[in-house]
Each structure stands twice: as C-alpha cells, then as structure tokens.
C-alpha cells in the first residue's frame, strides 16, 4: 500500500520537468493521476511512463489560464475516478527578460498562467473538495520573487510571490474545512525551465551549481518528494506554508 493508494491526484504541467516527476511519484505511491497540460504529446509520454511502471493515469489537455479548461480538468478527474483528493498546481511560464524590454503580451502570459491559473485551479479544486469533505493542494512557487530577486526575472518573481499570497489566503479561508493548501519554492533544479542560453543540460548544471552553497543543483525528484509529503497525511497539521528547496541559495 502506497501513501496515496485509492486517491486521485491532479497534476498540471505534467508533461515535463517537475510536473512529470511529481506525477510519476504519486503514481508509484498508488494514486490515480490526472495529467493536465497544454501539450498532449508530452502528456502522453508521461502517461506511457506511468503505465510502464504499473500505474494509472488519465490525460486531459488544459490551459490553466482558461477557465473552461480548468473546470473540465476537475470534472474529468471526478468523472473517471469519483473524487479529487490532491492537486499539484505546477504549470508555469518564465517570461524572462529585462523589465523595460518585456512586451505586454509576455507579461500577460506570465500572469495568466502563474497567477490567474493558480487562482482558477484552486477555485474549482476547492469547490470539489468542499463537496467531498476535504483534500490537499500544493502550489508551485519559486525562490525568485518570494525570497530573492534576480535581473531578467522580475515579472516571473512577482507572479510567484503572488502565488504564495494566494496560497496563504486560501489556506486560511478553508482551514476549518479539512482542506490543506501549501506551496513549494524550488531554487535551481534540473528542469527545462532552468535552461537559458546553454547548449546542454551539463552546461546548465555547471553554471547553476557554481552559485549553490551546497555545490550542486536540485533534482526534480527531490522537489516531488516535498510535494508528496505536503499532500500526505504526514503533513496533516501543515497548511498555508511553503517549503523552500534551494540548497541554501536564498540565505
């Protein structure tokens, strides 16, 4: 019996990186996993990995910035598996560049996915969890914005700081309803979003490792383990909080 046997977990941005790692980890712990995202091809790749390991999953194409898509993802989870026990709101976009050079379309996209998307996701996830008597939500934030700033990521940082504000406020609103809402804030991890101008993952790893007090970057699996802990019964007394996974870089 795994920690999530008999439970349904919705993961957004499940096609790559941290979302894929979390989806695989939840499935390995017995959950039926709903894989949501904008790119069906990468979601189906994750589905194949889940099924190859003996897990159960469902693919739902959804853009978290589109309300109908978010509603449909929650409805699909309940239609297939009967309930929604856990949600990991991981989908995000970076929109890097100097503040004065960003255009409105880029800023709108960053806010639509990271802030509006988190709000919409919680709106429909919480409604379902209220109807069924409880659940757990984990939102993806970042050390950028909430704990440190870095040139060329100002709008992304602002969006991720807003995610923490949404997390805390929603957690307080629903603390008495058996719904726990927390966040994780990774620093530098081995994931597609951390690629900038490097030609290889090895080059990226060397660049970022040089900035880390612990001498290395984190893995997607390490972030996934924190997500699973927050979503599990072991964290039943934890709500409105954030776990920072950054190798000491924000100290």
The radius of gyration over CA amounts to 17 Å
Report, as a whole number of angstroms, the end-to-end distance.
Answer: 38 Å
Largest β-sheet summary: 7 strands, parallel
Contiguous runs where pLDDT drops below 50 for at least 5 residues: none
The count of helical stretches stands at 8
Main features:
251 residues; 7-stranded parallel beta sheet; alpha/beta; 46% helix
Written account of the structure:
This protein has eight helices and seven strands; from the N terminus they run βαβαβαβαβααβααβ. α2 links the parallel β2 and β3. The model has no long low-confidence stretch (mean pLDDT 94). The chain is globular. With 251 residues, it is an alpha/beta fold.
Question: What's the arrangement of secondary structure elements?
Answer:
Elements: E1 8-12, H1 17-28, E2 32-37, H2 40-52, E3 56-61, H3 67-81, E4 86-89, H4 104-132, E5 135-140, H5 143-146, H6 154-174, E6 179-186, H7 201-209, H8 220-231, E7 242-245
Parallel strand pairs: 1-2, 1-4, 2-3, 4-5, 5-6, 6-7
Quick description:
Helices cover 46% and strands 16% of the residues.
């Amino acid at each position: 019996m795994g920690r999530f046997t008999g439970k349904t977990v919705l993961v957004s941005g499940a096609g790559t990186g941290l979302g894929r790692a979390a989806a695989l980890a939840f499935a390995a712990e017995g959950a039926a996993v709903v894989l949501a995202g904008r790119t069906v091809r990468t979601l189906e790749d994750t589905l194949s990995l889940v099924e190859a390991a003996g897990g159960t999953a469902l693919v739902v194409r959804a853009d978290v910035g589109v309300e109908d898509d978010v509603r449909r993802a929650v409805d699909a989870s309940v239609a297939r598996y009967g309930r929604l026990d856990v949600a990991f709101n991981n989908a995000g976009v970076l929109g890097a560049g100097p503040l004065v050079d960003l255009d409105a379309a880029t800023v709108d996209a960053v806010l639509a996915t990271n802030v509006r998307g988190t709000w919409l996701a919680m709106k429909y996830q919480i409604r379902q969890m209220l109807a069924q008597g409880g659940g757990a939500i984990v939102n993806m934030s970042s050390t950028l914005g909430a704990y440190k700033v870095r040139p060329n990521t100002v709008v992304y940082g602002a969006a991720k700081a807003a995610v923490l504000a949404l997390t805390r406020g929603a957690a307080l609103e629903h603390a008495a309803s058996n719904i726990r809402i927390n966040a994780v804030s990774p620093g530098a991890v081995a994931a597609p979003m951390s690629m900038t101008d490097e030609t290889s993952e090895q080059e990226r790893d060397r660049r970022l490792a040089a900035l880390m007090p612990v001498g290395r970057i984190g893995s997607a699996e390490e972030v996934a383990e924190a997500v699973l802990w927050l979503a599990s019964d072991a964290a039943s007394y934890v709500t409105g909080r954030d776990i920072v996974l950054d190798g000491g870089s924000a100290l």
